Each structure stands twice: as C-alpha cells, then as structure tokens.
Amino acid sequence: MAGIFEVFRPTDASASNAGLVGRLSALWQRKSRNPADVRQTTEQGTSATASPSSEQFQLWQLRYERRSIIADLRRLADEEPRFARALRKLAREAVRKGVRITLQEGPSRGPVAGRYRRAQAILEETLKTCDLSPAKLRSWAWALPLEGDLFVQVVVADGRVVDAKRMPSASMERNTDSQDRFFDVQRAFTQLDIQTNTDITQFAAWQIHHERWNHLDGERYGRSEFLQLRRPARNLQLLEQAQVIRRIVRAALRLLHKVGNKDKPGLARDVEDYKAFNNLAAQSKGGYDPTIAMRDYYGNGLTEVVAIPGDPNVHEIADLEYFRDAFAAGTGVPKAMLGWADKEINRDILKDQIEQWLKEVQDLTDAIKNVVRTVLDLALLLEGIDPETVPYDLVFSQNTTETASERQSRVAAALHAGLISQRIAVGAVAEDYDFDDVDHVLAEIEEDEARRLAKTQALAATAGKEASRAQSAARP
After folding, report:
1. Which candidate among 47, 176, 198, 429 keeps its CA 20 to 30 Å from the CA of 218?
2. How far is CA 70 from CA 138, 151, 361, 368, in A?
3. What stretch of H or E contains 320?
4. From CA 2, how far away is CA 311, in angstroms rounded?
C-alpha cells in the first residue's frame, strides 16, 4: 500500500538528488526574487492584511473555510445533475481533444537545429510519460473552477520528469507571508491530514504548480467560480422538493363521503361501520389518503360520495422558474445548452450567449495550458535546455461557434493568401477530420505532393519526347 502514497512525498529530496534539488531551488529563488532585494525601493508597508494583529486567527479560519467550501461544492456536483452537467461541459469544452505541441520553425541544420529536434523529442516524450491526455486534463479543468485552486506535483526521478499528479486542494496549504511571498522556497507547500491537521509532507516551490482561479493579488488562494451559487442551489432544491410535496397532497382528487343526511344524520358508529364495510379503515390517515387509487363505493341511499377537485393553481410555478433562472445564471452556461429552454428560443440571442461563454471557457483553457507549460519547461531544464531558447506553443482546439465547413473555408483562404503555415492550417482542421498526429499528416501531404510532382514531370518528359518524334517525322 505504500506505493499508493508515493506521490505525496517530495520524491527528489534524497541524497542522490541533492545536487538537482539545489540547482532547481536556486533557479526558483532567482526567478522569484523580490525587487527590494536587488535595489532600494520606497516600499513602506510590511503587511498586506488590514489587521496584522489578527492575521494568525484569519489563517486558521481560512483553513476550515476552504475545506467547507470545497466539500459543499463537491456535494453539489454529486447531487445536482444540472450543475454537474454545466461543470462537465465547461471542462470538456476547455480541453476538447487535448493539447498539441508546435515548435516555431528554426534553422534546418547546425547546433540550433539539433537543439530544436532534441527539445521536440523531450516535449513529446514528457507528454506521454506524464500521461497528459485529454482525460487527465479534463479532470484538472473540472477541479480548478470548482475548487478555486489546482495543485499539481511535478514528479522527478533520475533527473527526468516522470509524472504530474493533481493534489487534493483541501489538504494543500501555501506557506507564504501576508504579501503572498514564500518564507522558504524549499518548504513552499505543505500537505496536511485534514482530520488531524498534522503534516504529511512538505514540497519545494518547483515541485508544485499552484494554479489559482479568480485570484486576487496578494491573497494565498483562488476562489471558486461557483462560490456564490451555493445559496441559489439550496433555494432551488428546497423549492422543487416543496413543489413535489404540493403536487402530492394538493393536486390529487379527493373524495368526501357523507353518511346520512340532514333529516337523518349518521352517527359516529355509522361512519365507522361504513369505513369497515368499504375497507377504508386501513387507508384512513386522519382523512382519506389522496394517493389511493380511485375505487367504487356502495351505499343504501343515506351515503353520498362527492368529488373534491385538487388545487387548480398547482401548475403556476413562476417562483420556481425564477429560482431556476437564478441558478442557471450562476452556472454560466446558457440554459438552452443544458436542455432548460422551456420557451421559444431566440437563436440570435443564444448565439451571443454561447460566444460569451466560449470566451470564459478560453480563460480556463489558458489556465490549463499554463500548468502543462510548467511541467514541460521543467522537463527541458532538467535536460539542460533553456525553454526560452526553444520557442514552442501549446495548441488546444479552437473554441468557436463556426461550423466545420466555415472553418475549413476560412483556413483554406488564409493558407492560400500566405497568412498561415501549412502546419497551422492542418492543426486548425485536425478535429474536423479526427486525426491527432499533425506531423504524420504533414508527412503524408509532402509524399503526395512529391508523387504528383514526379508524375507531372514524367508526363511532361513523355510529351516532350512525343513532340520531338513528331517534329522528326515531319521533316523531309
């Protein structure tokens, strides 16, 4: 069982990797050095909190508040199907078919070209080794807006990046001061047991990538995209439950059984005999149960059964629709995309809503791209390659409302005008044709072009020979 928790330990804090840890820590210190350390500034304040005297109490309160919010939203995602679907659509649209690596075109030969080829091989291998597949990236895209924070541990073994693991946000803490600066970059993050609040382990700054959603400058953690949705969700669930009960007890048809009449009213004994004779005694719950199916009754002329209709206004649910709309607005996804369009849909308005939603999705795509880039940059650094000397891009499928035919026409026009390269054009339409390996497709295109060129040249040579023979035959 020990192997299951291996990822929760700083895997490189060993004697054999002491040099590696030291180099990475030094690199991080140079990267995150405070400008006040290298030149004199006019900085006056020493605390970014409004009340330094209560800072420790606020941190203690923040610890339990974060755990409560994460647990509350997790429970909502498990219980509320509309919220769960909105969250899944957000994550799927942000990641779609995953990420591709494209290196900018460099020299074809020389040491720089060799570094480019080596870097591309390292990047592709890291994607496979760390299993940065669409399924894994979708889980990250699901957790980040829900919990507000995404902690990814970059696992290194034998001087190579071998894995990237999502850490449980509720148990991870960021060890920074009131201005969100690390006290010690070698003990930048701590994982706690949330039941006992005891340390499980600590991580150096380079081992954890902390991506924060809706982050405010100076604060330690991000904020969930759905932080304010919890109250509308509770109100909606409560109102829907009340509506169900209302329909059960008020919408059903009731029956009033009259035993006797004004001239000869029935006695209590007569009522009990009537109930027993018609087998109604066991069904009686302080009044006849409206959930019991209709049946026939029999009397001797002194009995009358009168139907009492149910609540005629039970169909009026304007209050329920209001809370449902408030809840839908909190999810951020247009209602029609979740199957909520119970009235006529204005397609122009819906298109505008989808375009605005796709812009928000792009923010999530950029956040996931930032996490992946951190993992890949570290892989290059461990191989002795500065990522800034090898410009590469991480490409996700484009979020757009245009159709496949519209996109293909746009890409073809841009390629014909020389505005984009063939690699970019192939990547832009890769999802439409359901292929993932852009390099393989480009190689096939080059082979096809070479075959067509050879065939054209052969036909031209044959035509030239025939023309020469014809000219020779025409001479006297």
Report:
1. 198
2. 18, 14, 21, 20
3. helix 318-331
4. 62
In the chain, what are the helix, strand and coil shares in percent, each to the nearest 5?
55, 15, 30
Q: Are residues 67 and 185 in the same domain?
A: yes
What pLDDT is stored for residue 373 in this prediction? 93
Which among 348, 365, 400 is the end of a domain?
400
Residue 197 and residue 91 share a domain: yes
Tell me the residue length of the chain.
Answer: 476
pLDDT of residue 254: 73
On whether both 9 and 120 belong to a single domain, the answer is yes
Which residue range is the domain that position 134 belongs to? 1-33+54-227+333-400
Q: Residue 173 in contact with residue 192, Cβ under 8 Å?
A: yes
In this prediction, the residues of the chain whose per-residue pLDDT falls under 50 are: 1-16, 286-287
Q: How far is residue 169 from each of residues 70, 121, 164, 182, 203, measured CA to CA in Å? A: 8, 32, 15, 18, 14
Q: Is 392 helix (H, G, I), strand (E, B) or coil?
A: strand
Q: How far apart are CA 351 and CA 339, in angstroms?
A: 15
Establish if 274 belongs to a structural domain: yes
Please list the residues that pair with 152 across neighbouring strands: 166, 209
257 with 221, same domain: the answer is no
pLDDT for 9 equals 43
pLDDT of residue 396: 83
- Please choose, from the candidates 324, 399, 328, 332, the residue with its C-alpha nearest in 3D space to the C-alpha of residue 146: 332
Question: Per the structure, how many domains does the chain have?
Answer: 2
Structure tokens at 166: 């999502």
